[in-house]
Amino acid sequence: MAAAAGAAPLLGELPDAIVLWEILVRLDPKSILRCRAVRRGWRSATSTRGFLLAHHARQPALSIFSHCKYIGSDRKQDILLLDHQAAQLHTVVRFDHPYQLEGCCDGLLLLSTRHSILNASRAGLSVCNPTTREMASPGLLLDFNILGMKHETTQWDTPSDRTGFYVLALGSHQPPRHVGCGSETKLVSAIFESGVPVRLRDCLHWYRVFYRNLSEEDTRSKLVVFDTIAESFRQMRAPLVPTKSCIFEMDDTLGIYTCNSMTTGQVVDIWVLHNYESEAWDLKYRVRLPIAQIRGRPEGPAGGWFLDVASGDGNALLLVCFGRSMFYIDTDGKLVATLRSCHSWDQRLKQTLVPHDFFAALEGYAVNGSPFIPSI
After folding, report:
1. Is position 6 within any domain?
2. Host H or E run for residue 187
3. Minimal CA–CA distance to 310: which of 261, 243, 262, 255?
4. Do 298 and 149 belong together in one domain?
5. For 126-144, what is each residue's pLDDT tens digit?
6. 301 and 280 in contact (C-beta within 8 Å)?
7. Triad 110, 349, 370: Cα angle to 5°
8. 44 and 76 housed in the same domain
9. Using CA atoms, how far apart are residues 368 and 62, in angstroms rounded to an integer?
10. 3-state helix vs strand vs coil in the chain, percent to 5
11. Is residue 4 part of a domain?
12. Range of the structural domain that residue 41 is part of
C-alpha cells in the first residue's frame, strides 16, 4: 500500500507496502495493539479490513488449555494457548468464573456454563473473542447439543420443529435452521460419539473416538463430513486404526492419531491425509513415548493419562498429561519440555482482530467488563 500524498511514511525509508505486508502483518495480535498505541499512522494502517483478514490468516492455530484457581472463595479461570515452537503456555484471557468450551471458529470461542453433558441444552451460551475481549450471548438453545461452529454468510427463514441438525446464524433473529438429519442412523450416532470436529475446506469433519464392538467396523473407516457451503452430509474414507483414535488438523490437511495402551506398548501412530480428493492416507509417524522419563518425574502422583497432538510448520509434537505435569514430546520420542498440567480442550484457536457486527446484535454485549479480568 503506497503512502497517501503528503502522509508520513510508516517506518523510516522503507516503503509502506513492505512495512505493512511484510512486517506488521506478521506480528502477533498483542503487538499489533501496541503498535496502534504508538503512532496514528500505524493505527490507521492496521485497522483496515483487508489488513485484519490477512493478519488473521497468518496466525498459527494454537492448542487451547484452561486452568482454574481460587482467589479467596472465588473460582477464576485462565484460557491459555500453547506456543508450539517455544513450548510455552501463554494466558490469552482471564474470566471471573469458569466456562466450558463448546466450539471454536475464526478466532471466536463458544462458551457455556454447563458442568456436564446432561445439562448442556439448558446452560447459558456466550460467544467470545478473547483477543478483542468481546462477549455476548446468543440466548438459550433448549434441547440442542452443540456440534461445531462454522463461518455463516447467509440467513434463511425456515423455522422447523423437526429432529435433526440445525444451523444458528449469530446475530440473526431467525430460529435455528434445519439442515437435515443424516441418511444413516449409524452416521448420526457417530457424530454424537465423536470428539471435536475439524474444520477444513469449509467442511466439518467428525471421526469416532471409540467403537464398542466389531459389528461397528463398517463405520470405523469413515469420517462424517458436513459441507458448510452446500449444507449437506457425506462420508469420507479414513485409515483402519485401533479403536482409540482422534482426528486433528495438521498443516492444512487432516491427521488421525492413535495410541495403544500406555502400560504395554506406548506407541503413537500418526496418519496424515496427503490427498484430500482421493482420500489417500499415509502413516507418517510412529512414536514410542519415553514412558520411563515421564513416570520418573516427581511432579505428581500416578494417575490418568491424556494424549493430544499439536502441529505447525510441518512438524508434529505430542502432549502427554500425567499427574500435575504436561510433557512435550517430538516425533522421535524425545522429551522436549515439561509444562504445568492444564485442561486441554482438544481445539485450536487462531487469534483475530477482525471485527464482527453480530456482537452488538446479541444479548449482554460487553467489552472488557465482567466476566473478563484485567490482565496482570
Report:
1. no
2. helix 185-192
3. 255
4. yes
5. 999 999 999 998 865 544 5
6. no
7. 50
8. no
9. 23
10. 20, 40, 45
11. no
12. 16-56
